[in-house]
Amino acid sequence: MTEHAWLIPALPAVSAAIIMALGKRLPKGGAEVGITSMAVAFVLAVLVALEVFAANVTAALEGSPAFLVERAVQLATFGGDSGFDAGIRVDGLAAMMFLLVTFVSLMVHVYSTGYMHGEARFTWYFTLLSLFTASMLLLVISNNLMLLLVGWELVGVCSFLLIGFWWEEKQNSNAAIKAFLTTKTGDVGLIVGVIALWSMFGTFDIGEIISAVEEGVQAGGAALDNGLLTFALLALFLGAVGKSAQFPLHTWLPDAMAGPTPVSALIHAATMVTAGVFLIARLYPVFHHSETAVFTIAIIGAITLFSAGLLAIVQDDVKKVLAYSTVSQLGYMVAALAFSYTAGIFHLFTHGFFKALLFLGAGSLIHAVHSNNMSDMGGLRRAMPATFWTFLVGSLALAAAPPLAGFWSKDEILAEAVHAGGYAGTVVFGLGILGGLLTAFYMARVLFLVFAGSYRGAGTPHESPRAMTGPLVALAIPSAVIGLVNLPFGAFQPYAFSAWTMFSVDYWTTHPIELNLPIALGATALAAVGFGIGAAIYRRAPERDPVLGMGLVTQTLENRYYLDHLYEGVIVRTIKGPLARAAYWLNDRVIDRLVYLAGAGVSRLADKTYAVGDQRGIDGAVNGLGVSAMWSGARMRLAQSGNVQLYAGGMFVGVIVLGVLFATA
Amino acid sequence: MMLSYPLVFAALLFSVGVYGVLTRRNAVLVLMSVEIMLAAATINLVVFGQLAAANLGDSVLSGQVFALFVIAVGAAEVGVGLAIVLLMYRNRASVNIDDADLMKF
Q1: Which of A106, A352, A453, B2 has the most CB atoms lying inside 10 A of its own CB?
Q2: Nearest C-alpha of chain A: how many angstroms from B98?
Q3: From residue A353, how far is each of A9, A268, A404, A542 by CA, in Å?
């Protein structure tokens, strides 16, 4: 089955083409094609995962190499060995990502039939959903960095199109452009990093790069240049910073909430933003060869998780709370990858489920209340029970309440940070614990502002249709129980998840996962404190929200640390103003002038050529021939005098000459 | 007498005829000069005929016969030539051949 894993990205790609071509004519506007293809892709992903995980468990127990299937088709070559291949690399990590992406995408597809009902561009929406899923799966499955780049850029484009789906409102298209350009800023780093790695190893193939780094050789047998490798890794990390919304390139994610909520659930919670985390996990042994890179990853992750957590507590828009929460959790994942492979990707896995659940739940609320703001909600516990219970499960999972999924993954990260120790480990642990408190606090704030108290909005909210609540329930189940796959005790294998997704037996045996019970309980206690504070403040929907009354702190947070002012006011305005004008001047006055002068010079040369060369020279020669003919004719004409005696005289002279000639010859 | 004497005489006569053809203004006089040239050529023919008789045998009279032919041809030619001059006089009221210069460029 794993040899045919390429079907998993291929099916959504085909369905995107079919929906775009035929969608409008189908009874459900293309949604049925999308849902069917995604369901089949999910089934395939399950089959692949079963095969991969079973093989990895066997390998872990026996000590044989981890499961890996690679197939490649070479599409183009440039320079010797390296070329552009289309290949697949299926291992535990890829199988896990298949499961996550196809399941969440399937849930979003089903949900969207309800949420986007009656939308004018319904078919285009589903085309984009399928195209996006295909691109993300391509990114996951690819075995070389070139193809990964292709998938990376494609998801960026789909994200742009989906965020700006309702582009009739200027702020939506602005948000889409902001997202695209901010991630593009990171992509510069990614491309530089890929090229730097190619120049070191002569190949784009991920497997070859990893084995080359582990052996410590570059292309041509030279020893590994650690400086260049660090540079390449930091450049790659810049790409991850952009795509996974790490500080300071995180500003696009909250604005991306301008897109439809199911899009936020799919792209900006579970899949696209995890592409950066996925990249680091894919090249995990390579990243860990450079201490500078690992340290940078840890610090940036820690800063992100804490600063975004703070920003989440002053938001009124429920989607913005969840967006900042996503940025914060991505910070956790990235920081975790500085210490432990399994901790990072386990949190990626669990977060995907409960964050998608929370976003879809928020969409359900928005659909009922027709407003994004929590100040228009309240008391929805009785009006929307299904939404309430699933949202509650999601929130508790996010706040890492045991035994829900978030507890196991987040506390794993904290345990690994403590285990690693050092400056980075301490920082990550400290900020991570405080971040947990913040998470619990702001989720409690959301829960109570939305579901408790009395309704503050207009109209009568009612529960969403089954197309929307079905996926909520379906996502609530893994949010609750999926953490149990990495339990310290298991029927077949303790810490099963870490065995399922291992990329190398050596790493798995030398870095065993351990549940650190004191840390876990301590973090939970702190989170419970945070939750309690939130509950106490918001249980009765206070008149003035205390977080908005913190003076300078609130102002800084509401202005998002003035980063947007820096980016847009300073950087963008400088580029749009003086820099653009200077560039225009250079182009208009200098370059265009050179071109004009070249043209004028050629034109003058042509004129000269015409006047002198053609008119005087060539025409002179041609005319001269004619004139000389006329002149010689005028001279020779004079011999025709008409005088017969002259002719006779001429003949006589000629005879004399002939006679002399014959006589003397 | 030597063979060359009548030949020289014929050459001189021919020269006189050429002088007359090239120089006389009157067309009839040009024709007369042509006749003089013809006579000179005939004398040449008779002389060489006599030379042939002396070398080849008594009964050869080619030169004489040839001379008779020339006289006949000469007569015909003068008839035609005079007819042309007559027509020229009729059309131009002049026999001055310098006036017949229509072929001038």
Answers
A1: A352
A2: 6
A3: 20, 12, 12, 32
A243 φ, ψ to 5°? -70, -40
Q: How far is CA A422 from CA A284, A286, A339, in A?
A: 20, 21, 11
What are A153-195's pLDDT values in tens digits? 999 999 999 999 999 999 899 999 999 999 999 999 999 999 9
Show the tokens assigned to A586: 């250079």
CB contact under 8 A, A648 and B22: yes
* DSSP state for residue B96 in the 8-state scheme: B
Strand partners, A223: A217
Task: Show the tokens assigned to A267.
Answer: 């792209």
Overall size of chain B counted in residues: 105
Q: From CA A138, how far away is CA A89, in angstroms rounded?
A: 10
For A568-664, where are the alpha helices, taking DSSP H only? 573-574, 580-585, 592-608, 619-637, 644-664
Q: Diameter of chain B by CA atoms?
A: 57
Judge: B21–A642 Cβ closer than 8 Å, yes or no: no
Rounded alpha-carbon distances, angstroms, from residue A237 to A182, A230, A242, A276:
14, 10, 9, 8
A645 and B102: CB-CB below 8 Å?
Answer: no
What chain B holds in terms of domains, given with CATH numbers, is 4-92 (1.10.287.3510)
A621 touches chain B (CB under 8 A): no
Give the pLDDT confidence of A275-298 residue by residue, as tens digits: 999 999 999 989 888 889 999 999
For the ranges A18-32, A269-283, A301-315, B16-30, the maximum mean pLDDT occurs at B16-30
Tokens of B26: 């009157």
User: Are A640 and B104 a contacting pair at CB < 8 A?
Assistant: yes
DSSP three-state, residue A168: coil
Q: Is the pLDDT of residue A325 over 90?
A: yes
Report the residue from B21, B22, B104 with minimal CB separation from A642.
B104
Using CA atoms of A384, A390, A395, A398 in order, give the dihedral in degrees to the nearest 10.
-160
Residue A491 banded pLDDT, cuts 50, 70, 90: low
Picking from B22, B97, B105, the nearest residue to A637 by CB comes out as: B105
Residue whose entry in the numeric block shows the structure tokens 């947990």: A436
Residues 48-67 in B contacting A (C-alpha not used; CB under 8 Å): none
Alpha-helix runs per DSSP H in A170-283: 170-201, 206-215, 226-243, 252-255, 261-265, 275-282
A645 interaction partners in chain B (CB closer than 8 Å) = 21-23, 30, 97
Predicted confidence band of residue A541 (pLDDT cuts 50, 70, 90): low
| Euclidean distance between CA atoms A67 and A501, whole angstroms | 9
Q: pLDDT value at position A410?
A: 87
pLDDT (mean) for A327-341: 92
Contacts of B103 in chain A (CB under 8 A): 640, 642
Nearest chain A residue to B23 by CA distance is: A645
Q: Closest Cα of chain A to B42: distance in Å?
A: 19
ipTM of the complex: 0.87
Beta strand extents in A457-593 (DSSP E only): none
Which is more confidently placed, A66 or A226? A226
Nearest-CA neighbor of A100 among A407, A482, A364, A393? A482
Query: Alpha-carbon distance A405 to A400, whole Å?
Result: 7
